[in-house]
Structure formats: structure tokens, C-alpha cells
Specification:
The chain is 39% helix and 21% strand. The protein is of the alpha+beta class and 191 residues long. The protein binds zinc ion.
């Protein structure tokens, strides 16, 4: 893996890899694909490192981490939404006030394009056990050619009202979604 990183000429990409590997625990192929997707999305949106971004990841696997550590789109700061769709795809926009219109880009690792790289495709489709260093070096040489993107006009959703209530059962405070008097934990126990 070190050899691969040393061969990357772009110092920005090398620094991205180091940050992601340390945050994620190691450099997985999915996390590396996330770096490429982030860079492609920023290029398409004309976004710089100073722009605050919002991302929707369509899988819990690997992809969220590069966006959290490199773009500051975290679950805790609501810069990230994760859909459990099991897809290697993300949609990126600049952060904007609720109700406003924003340009977004959806980037996906495209199986119709990875098929040109049989070993990468085998990793993607999980038909063979392809080591990360091999899949990543293919991704490096393939670059943007294995991704497909689409520009979207999106509207930033309104923020839901945030009311705090004291649960009628456990007496702990919780964020109400509607008018419910019990927290979700107590509600699930009482059903
Ligand atoms: Zn409760």
C-alpha cells in the first residue's frame, strides 16, 4: 500500500489518503473511491476547500468516511445524510439555507464502466477476492473514467421543528417528532 501512495504525484491526494486511512482505520477501496468521488463532485460544482458541503451517501459502507474527514460533512453537524441503499453513490451540494434551490451532483461508481477493468469490476461485484491495494491502484489509473455523474437541481428541505419533552415513563428528556408523550425507547418497550 505504501508503494501505491508514494507513486501518487499529487501531494493533495497523498494528504487526503493519509487522513482517510487514519480516520477509517485503513485505506479501503471504498474509502478511496469516496476520495475520488469527493474530488470529482467538487470539480463539477466548482467548490473549493473553503466551501461548506452537504452530502447524501447511498451506503453505510466506507463512503461516508472520506466526506466526514476531508469535507467536514459529518453526521453530528448534519452535513451528511446516509441512505441505506447499498449503492456506491453520493449526491453533493453546497450547504444552503432551508427552502433555497441548490445545484447538486450525483456521482456513482458505474458498473457499466468498471467492466472495462475486470479485476476492479470483480472487487465491485464481489465475485472475486481482490486485495485493496490492487483495486485501489486500478482506481488510480482509471481515474474519473469509472464514474458517472449527473447535475441536479435540488431544494434544501425545511428543518423540522425541534421540541423537547420529558418522557411520561422514564422521565428523561427527548426530542419530539410529533406530539408523542413517550420517548421512542419507552414506546418500543410498551408495544
Ligand atoms: Zn422514556
Amino acid at each position: 500500500m505504501e508503494e501505491i501512495i508514494e507513486n501518487i504525484a499529487d501531494p493533495e491526494m497523498r494528504s487526503q489518503i493519509e487522513k482517510v486511512a487514519s480516520f477509517h482505520g485503513y485505506l479501503s477501496t471504498g474509502a478511496f473511491a469516496g476520495i475520488q468521488m469527493l474530488n470529482l463532485a467538487k470539480k463539477v460544482l466548482g467548490a473549493s476547500n473553503k466551501d461548506r458541503l452537504f452530502v447524501t451517501c447511498e451506503t453505510y459502507n466506507c463512503l461516508p468516511d472520506p466526506f466526514q474527514v476531508l469535507a467536514g460533512c459529518t453526521i453530528g453537524n448534519k452535513g451528511m445524510k446516509i441512505l441505506d441503499h447499498g449503492k456506491m453513490a453520493v449526491t453533493v451540494t453546497r450547504r444552503a439555507p432551508a427552502g433555497s434551490k441548490v445545484k447538486g451532483v450525483r456521482v456513482m461508481l458505474d458498473p457499466a464502466k468498471t467492466v472495462r477493468y475486470p479485476r476492479l469490476h470483480a472487487w465491485f461485484m464481489k465475485t472475486k477476492n481482490v486485495p485493496h491495494h490492487e483495486a485501489i491502484s486500478i482506481l488510480i489509473s482509471a481515474g474519473e473514467s469509472v464514474y458517472t455523474y449527473k447535475i441536479l437541481d435540488l431544494e434544501v428541505p425545511e428543518k423540522p421543528r425541534k421540541e423537547i419533552a420529558i418522557c411520561g415513563c422514564c422521565k428523561e428528556s427527548f426530542v419530539q417528532k410529533g406530539e408523542e408523550m413517550l420517548c421512542i425507547a419507552c414506546l418500543e418497550h410498551s408495544l
